[in-house]
Lipid II:glycine glycyltransferase (Streptomyces chartreusis NRRL 3882), 378 residues
Amino acid sequence: MSVRVQPITRDEHLAFVAARPSASHTQIPSWGEVKPDWRAESLGWFDDAGQLVGAGLVLLRPLPGPKLPGLPRYLAYLPEGPLIDWHEPGLEHLLEPMIAHLRSRGAFAVRMGPPVAVRRWSAEAVKAAIADPAARRLRDVRATSFEPRAGQVADTLRRMGWRQTEPGGEDGFAAGQPRYVFQVPFAGRTLDDIRAGLNQQWRRNISKAEKAGVKVVRGGYEDLPAFHELYSETAERDRFIPRPLPYFQRMWSALTAEHPDRMRLYLAYHDGEALAAATMLTVGEHVWYSYGASTSRRREVQPSSAVQWRMMTDAHGLGAAVYDLRGITDTLEESNHLLGLLRFKVGTGGEAVEYLGEWDFPINRLLHKAMSLYLARR
């Protein structure tokens, strides 16, 4: 099959996404507006008959430092994309024209994150691994299920010259999008089924919040400062660098302009005080718990559990097939401060999922190495 890759319009891109059961929120046109440091372009894959058979959002980041003569030089990044048939026998025929197009745009390297699941671990398997002193990383624990075709995709990429990036740091998170995530399957399950699948502590906490009178409401743009105040407190407590308020304001404006339900904000109140909040993203049948925030005050009324259950309830009402709690640590050691977050997510009764991770194709090896060193220092 002969395929050509060329820019497409925003409407063409959105129509292609809408025709699929799901796509990553990082592969929709509006995501480019959330990332102003990058230049965004929608790409389309066309077959011999002129039919659109793939699409992708590519983010172009200029090489730091003084401008070089000639074309501007970019790192081309397709987070959790592109949206193509990754199990197409001639996968290289879909990727080669993409590389050629991006080279013509001045890309010195291409980075992408194939949305291809490799392994899955049930909640029971993860709990057993956490309890096992000999288990140090999830990747070393026997998975509950495997996707045999994922290995074929990885083999093709290596044969083409793509290099897999390793999860960064001690916590197993990738440098870009997470390689390990936790998801709760919703397809074919009633809301009662989903609640019954939660562990005892989760169900108890939801009941506590209900009895305490915690009220969860949907917020709007004007509630983002309240969310951000809680989020900043969470960042200090959990030792991560928070994003600034304008990031979330930009995210809200861009995503809700594209679709009114693309991004939602939920806040949990008790006696008139906001105690917890979270954002939820939806593309097709895939719903993500995106950012969570809470205060240390009055934790006994379980406001975070109330927010999560309201989001899961609403996601089910929207027809979600998957409720995605996003990144988890790969490290199972008690000393890791992210293990508590993993335990929290395991309580949903879902499953840990490993994806293929992110891959680099160096077009100009020298510039690619320079950018890698720059990103590592950052």
The first strand starts at residue 4 and ends at 7. The chain has two domains: 4-113+358-377, 117-146+168-355. DSSP finds twelve helices and 16 strands in the chain. The longest helix spans residues 224-238.
